[in-house]
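Tokens in:
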């Protein structure tokens, strides 16, 4: 029975939500992260360490029953750093989990391992076809997880779609900022592609299920995503409507926009990276039949629920953000809890 859980990346957006939820459920929780938490959770033991530091990771896991490995690098990191953190870090965590006798290690992966699949809904048996440094590293980390699974460690691998909720900034902050300022917002082409997202509340709930489900069922790989989702245009328009300025999602010609975004990305003048550019041009959604049938778990929130709850949180957090800015602290773009710098894209505001 799981009573003590270690959460790697516990200071991140997912890790923070997860530590709060597990602690509220009565579990003993240790958070392990390179950065101290922005908001320490009462009752949670916060440890500071790099997940590639084998000695400190082993010490953090000693005496625990399970670990949830959420720590990772963002696609914006340098390629060698992405692989080191995601692949080497996963090996360090899982080796420590095995050596210290943990019951199971829940590994948070990503649907990015599929690359840019042309089959939707994409199922778990679709081959891993990474297309960039981030998806290659996520695929490599899954291979590591499968190695330890073969050695007898129970390793549920969870593949969530892009998840949203309180604490999520990243590129979504650009949509929220433009909406709040009363601007239209651009989409590539008609914006009629169906892009599935996921609520962080549902992800936290799925992790809890993976921690408590019988090992013979949990020791598998599962897609996680919203069951209800529409088009990108519909989801973005919901945010503009909530802002209350009467603004609209505006189509921009896809081909020249893609060429421009790719050039800006290569010049490091835009945070919109290559895989995301192309993912936004085609339907992107996965099947969640397996997790429902094997673990009996289903999501509660739609795409729209997830993006609007995140926008509401973002709105109420702006006073805090302004206070932080007044102290001289600036966004580094190193975590999904920070708004990524818009770079040259901020100049496009003049046209919308």
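Residues out:
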């Amino acid at each position: 029975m799981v009573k003590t859980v270690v959460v790697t990346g516990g200071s991140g957006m997912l890790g923070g939500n997860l530590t709060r939820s597990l602690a509220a459920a009565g579990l003993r929780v240790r958070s392990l992260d390179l950065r101290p938490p922005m908001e320490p959770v009462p009752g949670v033991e916060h440890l500071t360490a790099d997940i590639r530091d084998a000695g400190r990771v082993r010490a953090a896991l000693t005496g625990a029953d399970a670990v949830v490995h959420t720590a990772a690098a963002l696609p914006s990191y340098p390629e060698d750093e992405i692989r080191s953190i995601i692949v080497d870090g996963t090996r360090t965590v899982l080796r420590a989990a095995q050596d210290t006798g943990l019951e199971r290690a829940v590994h948070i992966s990503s649907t990015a391992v599929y690359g840019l699949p042309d089959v939707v809904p994409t199922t778990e048996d679709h081959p891993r076809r990474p297309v960039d440094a981030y998806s290659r590293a996520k695929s490599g980390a899954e291979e590591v997880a499968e190695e330890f699974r073969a050695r007898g460690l129970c390793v549920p691998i969870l593949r969530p779609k892009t998840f949203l909720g309180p604490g999520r900034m990243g590129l979504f902050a650009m949509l929220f900022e433009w909406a709040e300022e009363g601007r239209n917002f651009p989409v590539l082409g008609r914006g009629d592609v169906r892009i599935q997202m996921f609520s962080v509340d549902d992800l936290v709930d799925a992790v809890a299920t993976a921690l408590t489900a019988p090992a013979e069922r949990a020791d598998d790989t599962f897609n996680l995503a919203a069951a209800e989702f529409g088009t990108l245009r519909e989801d973005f328009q919901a945010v503009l409507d909530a802002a209350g300025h009467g603004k609209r999602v505006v189509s921009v010609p896809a081909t020249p926009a893609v060429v421009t975004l790719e050039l800006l990305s290569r010049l490091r003048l835009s945070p919109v990276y290559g895989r995301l550019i192309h993912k936004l041009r085609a339907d992107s959604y996965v099947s969640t039949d397996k997790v429902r049938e094997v673990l009996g778990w289903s999501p509660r929130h739609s795409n729209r629920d997830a993006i609007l709850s995140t926008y509401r949180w973002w709105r109420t957090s702006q006073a805090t953000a302004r206070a932080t800015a007044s102290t001289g602290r600036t966004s580094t773009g190193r975590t999904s809890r920070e708004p990524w710098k818009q770079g040259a894209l901020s100049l496009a505001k003049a046209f919308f």
